[in-house]
Structure formats: C-alpha cells, structure tokens
Amino acid sequence: MKHCITDQKQKVQADEVMVAVDIGKSLYHVRLSHVGGEPTGVLRVPPNRPGLDGLWARIRQYQRRWGRDRAVVGFESTGPYGELLVEYCWDKPVRLVQVNPKHTKRVKEVQDNSPQKSDAKDPRVIATLMELGSVLSVVAPEGAAAELRRLMQAREAAVARQTASGNRMQQLVFVLFPELSQVWGKLTTRSGLHLVQHYADPAVVRRLGEAGLWAQLRQARGCRWRRAKVAALVAAAHQSVGVRRGQVALQAEVAHLAEDLMREQAFLRQLEARLEAQLAQVPASRYLRSVKGVGRLTAAGLIGEVGDFGHYATARDLLKLGGLNLYELSSGRHRGQKRISKRGRALMRKLLYLAALNVTKPGRAFYEAYQRMLQRGMDKTKAHVAIARKLLQLLFALVRDQQMYRADYSARLKKEDAA
C-alpha cells in the first residue's frame, strides 16, 4: 500500500490541523487537534464513503474554527486496513504520514505511566508522535510500479500456499504409498502430480499392472514417462507397506492437494508473465537487471517496494526503507555489535539477500568483495547481508544516473585518470 521517506523529522506545523487516526478493520478512531491545543473527543468513523466524507467535512470545519490552512493525517502502519484512508486522502489537500507501531507501543506509557491500550488512548499517542515529528511520509507507488507491487504480493502468497500444500501432500503420500516418492523422485512435477492425483493407492497400481498403467499414463498430456520407472513403481506397489486404514479419506485429501498444487503452479506462471509485461514499462528495470545476478523477480520486487527511485535523495534512505540500516547498543566503554534494524520492508530485504547469493558467485560483481569479507573472518550470512547493502547502493546509483552496470568501470576510470 504505502512506502515511507525516512530521511528527516517532519513535525506538525503551526498552521496544520492534526488528524490522528487509529486504524481498525470495521472502525477508525480519530482525534483532531493542533499544536499546543487540546484534542477533540474521539470520533468513530466507519471506513466507507459516508464515514470518510463525514470525517473530511469535520476536518474542514475545524480548519475554519482554529484558523488553520492545512491538515496532516497520521495513522499507525496496520497492513491493508489503512489503504482505504490513503486512497481517499490521496487527492485531498492533506499531508499523509504514518507512525511506527513500535514507537506507539513505547510512547503509550509516557502519557499516563500505564501500559493501558484503548481506542480512546491510541489516537492521542499517535498525535504525540506526530507532534514530536517521529513520522514517515507516505509514498504510494503508481502505474506499473503499483501493479508490480500487487503482483509480487500475490506471488509471495501463492508460493506460501504452494509450499504448505506440497509439504502436506508429501506427508500423506508417505503414509499412503511411501514407495511412490522413493521410485519416482520429485512429486511436485507435472508427471509426479498426475501420479499422486490418480495412482497414490498401491492397490490401484497392482490391479493395473505394468502394461495397464503404462497405457493409461501415455494418455496424460504434457507429462513425460519412462517405462523403467513405471515397471519399478508396479514392483514397489506389490511390496508396499502403506497404511490401509482410512485409505479413502487419505486418497481424497491427497488428490485435492495435488489439484491445488497444479492450480497454484499455473497461477504462478500467469503472474510471472504479467510481471515481465509490467517490467517492460518501467525504464529503471533495465538498469537493475544489467547487474548479473539481479533477475526478473528481484527487479520487479524492488520496483514494487520502492516505487519511484526519484523519491529518495540518497541510498541511505533506501537502506532504511528496507530495514538494512545499521545500529548498535553501546554504553560507556562497551561497544555493541552492529546489526541491521529490520524495521523496514521484509520482502525487500529477502529479495536483496537472495540477490546477494547470486552476485557473489565467481565472476560476478561482488565475488571479490565477498571473498575479502570471508578472509577477514566474517560469517557467511553476515557477509551476504553486507553485500545486500552494497548491492542496493549500487542499484540506486545505476537508476539515479540512468547507467547500465559495467564490470570494468573502476579500471576504465583509473585508465582515464592515468591518461
């Protein structure tokens, strides 16, 4: 839904009405105030057209009453439930900001020295953070970037469903016909899923025999079969130690899971085709993909998460967005170990880490830097995180300068300087 520019404090100005919104699925709790003034009572706003229109009318009313020309709407990051508010306010003359849930959790005790959490208290805590300037600006991706964000979210959800269904299916197949995976190998291929869906019962395989099973399998479209494996499968069915009690229920669930997996695989193919089409509409994608090891999914995910790279002044802002900025806990003579904050977008971190695994392979952009880190005694995981940070800085520079990556860039610069 949203992205954040995190480079500076953005305090509420004296000419702004401050609108603090506690987001809920079925109801928003809102307090209006201004710098140095007492807040209104809690307004209960349903997230629908009449409710949001009523809130906007109330904001305009208090602007006139308090003599304020502008308004700033702040809310806590709450996943999809705040999207309606952002969409409604996007074209309105207001400034949209969001606060970090970790900050609200800590600041709520400052108000009344109590850990109490309530619908009346939460908007007041959000307003306090807004006054302090501990807020992040909302930047929503638009056009192809917005489509890429949604497509990547859909892909992540589909991969999670596919993994869950695949794990469950293989567990049940092991109970019903354990020799199937031993003979056939991977069961999540097209031919493997066809076998699971129709021949996960060893009794059926025994009854058909090698000739009968081979004849039926050859009629399946889009699958590859080997006669030797079919013969081995029939032999294994005669020696199967699979569970016999509750077979009907097991077979029904296994067939259902196999069908789910085939559907998810087809959906993923559709998503990736759409990702490729949307990527072609974003000029920045060609600069990102010019780095060997940064593929289609990494580029699509980064564009979806970041939106317009031009919204960010420095690579440091992007590191904060991805939760890759460093922090340490130090006191007195003690110096803590540096770690990444993980306070940003999790998918962005995941994509960069996976890309770091690719760009550190021999002959690629960060192979030598990675090897130097290992020689200094750095743990492999930490080295890959460090490379992920460097990679993001490189990608930001390529998009900013609209340049393709050149592996010999440093050498060419030295040669030009020497000349």
Strand content: 5-15%
- Count of beta strands: 9
- Shape descriptor reads globular
Amount of helix:
55-70%
Largest sheet: 7 strands, mixed
Strand order of the largest sheet: 1-7-6-5-2-3-4
Averaged pLDDT: 89
Q: What structural category characterises the helix and strand content?
A: alpha+beta
| Helix count, DSSP H or I runs of 4 or more residues | 17
Reading the helices and strands in chain order gives EEEEHEHEHHEHHHHHHHHHEEHHHH
Distance between the termini: 51 Å
Gist of the model:
With 419 residues, this protein is α+β, with helices and mostly antiparallel strands. The chain contains 17 helices and 9 strands. The strands form 2 sheets. The protein has a 7-stranded mixed beta sheet with strand order 1-7-6-5-2-3-4, with helices on both faces. The chain has a two-stranded antiparallel sheet with strand order 8-9.
